[in-house]
Amino acid sequence: MNTRIKEIAEQATDFVDIKKNTDLADDMDIESWVELYNQKFAELIIKDCAEIVRNSLLPSQNKVPATVALDIAARNIELLFGVEK
After folding, report:
1. How many CB atoms lie within 10 A of CB 54?
2. Separation of first and last alpha carbons in the chain
3. Cα atoms in the 13 Å half-sphere on the side-chain side of 46
4. How far apart are CA 14 and CA 33, in angstroms?
5. Distance between CA atoms of residues 53 and 74, nearest Å
6. What is the pLDDT of residues 6-28, one digit of tens each?
7. Which tens digit of pLDDT belongs to each residue from 41-64?
8. SS3 readout for the chain
C-alpha cells in the first residue's frame, strides 16, 4: 500500500474512532463503523484529488492548454496514490 493511502486510512480510522467514542455514537456497530470509515476514506481521497486538479489548473502557475493541465493532474493523482498508468 502506498504511503499516502496508509496516511488516509489512518486519518479515516482516527476520525471514526473519535466519532465512536462520543456520546452520540456509543452504540455504533461494526457495520456503521465500516460505513463511516469508507465514507471518510473516500472523502479524504477526493479532497487530495481535487487539490491536485486545482493546483494544475491555476492560470498564474501554468501557461499550458487545459487539456495538458488535466493530463498532468491525472498523472499526479496516479503518482500520489501509486497507481501504474
Report:
1. 10
2. 16
3. 6
4. 11
5. 8
6. 999 999 999 998 888 875 656 77
7. 999 999 999 888 888 776 555 577
8. CCHHHHHHHHHHHHHHHHHHCCHHHCCCCHHHHHHHHHHHHHHHHHHHHHHHHHHHHCCCCCCCCHHHHHHHHHHHHHHHCCCCC
Residue 41 forms part of a structural domain: yes
User: Is residue 40 assigned to a domain?
Assistant: yes
How many residues in the chain? 85
Domain interval for residue 21: 3-80
Q: Specify if 85 maps to a domain.
A: no
The grid coordinates of residue 62 equal 501554468
pTM for this entry: 0.76
Domain count, the chain: 1
By C-alpha distance, which of 79, 10, 15 is closest to 49? Answer: 79
